Amino acid sequence: MAQTVRIHLQPLGRTLELPSGSSLQEALFDFGVEFPCGGLGICKGCRVKVLSGEAPPSEEDRSAFEPGEIRQGWRLACRLRPQQDLTLKIAQWETPVLAGRAAFSFTPRQGAGVAVDLGTTTIAAQAVDLKTGHVTGTRTALNPQAAWGSDVMSRIQAATAGGLAGQLTQSVRSRIAEMVSGLAAGADLRDVVVVGNTVMHHLFCGLDVDPLSHVPFESPNGGLVLLNHRTLPWLKESATLRFLPCLGGFVGSDILAGILATGLHQSAEPACLIDLGTNGEIVIGNRERLLCASTAAGPAFEGGRIRMGMRADTGAIWRIERVAQGFECRVLGGGPPRGICGSGLVDAAAVGLDLGILEPSGRLKQREWLLANPVRLFQADIRQLQLAKAAVAAAIQILLGRLGLSPQDVGQVYLAGAFGNYIRPSSARRIGLLPFPEAAILPSGNTALLGAKMALFDGGDYAGLRARIEHVSLAAAPNFQDWFAASIPFPSS
């Protein structure tokens, strides 16, 4: 047995030489790999992918990953003690598939199914063995509609004024066809469930988006849509594609799926589901009554309209922490910084407020704030963050008010999606984005994809659940502008 092993890190192109059989934890930490549970093998936060070399899975690996993921080479870095040279792909500088791994009961079926979360920016899909419930494959892709704009209003504009609705529909259908066909190759595909916001629902299904372009931003066509091989030739004759129904306005089936995944509709105490992206979608209530709303947060939470903003990818500042001498920036991938993503932006504002670099009004006390060379924040960046967080905070306050609740009455706050998974709850509270007690805030992964997987097993139209959910149109809420204006400043402490 070799006394030392060489560990090649991709995509950094770096190579480590370590004693054979030694732990990777300390070595990989310097390259941006997180060990949230302290290396106990219970959180999957340190996942790496073995691209070459042999690394037999541990018992903890088999508990953390689906069999398909094990075969693809995914391992827990904290359990990995290499006995030979390996090439590892480090997941920390990718936008990961946050798939939601909570167990759920189901009635086994024959065949295979595919669950798809059709996001405005990214698409995530998982193939599922309907007999065992095991995930057999995962794929992600960028939404090709981004060529017509990064947000839903740009897509609506392209579809209506631009006359490009057919191209928008065909582009995303083709992308999902590639993903589903690849995942289900050779399988007995029976069911495909797709969830997404209302604009994605309409564009994929070939429905008119014009009602979503003007007040009251409601469409009569938000129900369950069933498609087969006659409409989608790439589907097998035995299979059906279901695009789950929307909840109203811009609150789509991704939020319906999130309610299923979190069990919000079964909760005895008030709870909340928040999905933050270009749109902020919020549900608050319990098994007796649920209110939902959507607010146009803009792209700041995803690094958009920020001068040096970027997605959570290699080189993004994603975490900023107070230290004795000021602050420290952490970069995805451990290399030089290239920009800042949404979670880093929220941290920056919180740290800036505490250090006196940023005033509660939002005024930056210097022309530009150097975070880590060459990444800087500018006054216009802070303004974009203020507008985004004010829109979300106002929506939360309106829903709480209609339910007669205070933030302290909400027992659990589920943060869905990639941004929700990385944002630091203390920073979100510090800047006034989330008013809830920090202990109540729970990053919850991709609840839309988890809910879509659950829907593969029940075949329902969710009419009963939808009847219990009241959509609140913020455009028609008389106090929205008041709450929005009041939420723009940052809290003084």
Describe this structure in words.
There is one protein chain. It contains 14 helices and 22 strands. Among the domains are: 4-93, Beta-grasp domain (Ubiquitin-like (UB roll)), CATH 3.10.20; 112-259, Nucleotidyltransferase, domain 5, CATH 3.30.420.480. The chain is an alpha/beta fold and 493 residues long. Residues 92-97 have low confidence and may be disordered. The strands form five sheets. It has a six-stranded mixed beta sheet, sandwiched between helices. Strands 21-20-12-13-14-22 form a six-stranded mixed beta sheet, sandwiched between helices. It has a five-stranded mixed beta sheet with strand order 2-1-5-3-4.
Question: What layout of secondary structure does this protein have?
Answer:
Blueprint: E1 4-10, E2 14-19, H1 25-29, E3 47-52, H2 59-64, H3 67-72, E4 74-76, E5 86-90, E6 112-118, E7 122-129, E8 135-142, H4 152-160, H5 165-183, E9 189-196, H6 198-205, E10 225-227, E11 240-243, H7 253-262, E12 271-276, E13 279-285, E14 290-296, E15 316-323, E16 326-331, E17 339-340, H8 342-355, E18 368-372, E19 375-378, H9 379-403, E20 412-416, H10 417-422, H11 425-430, E21 441-443, H12 447-455, H13 463-467, E22 469-471, H14 480-487
Parallel strand pairs: 1-5, 6-9, 9-11, 12-20, 14-22, 15-17, 20-21
Antiparallel strand pairs: 1-2, 3-4, 3-5, 6-7, 7-8, 10-11, 12-13, 13-14, 15-16, 18-19
Helix pairs in contact: 4-5, 7-12, 9-14
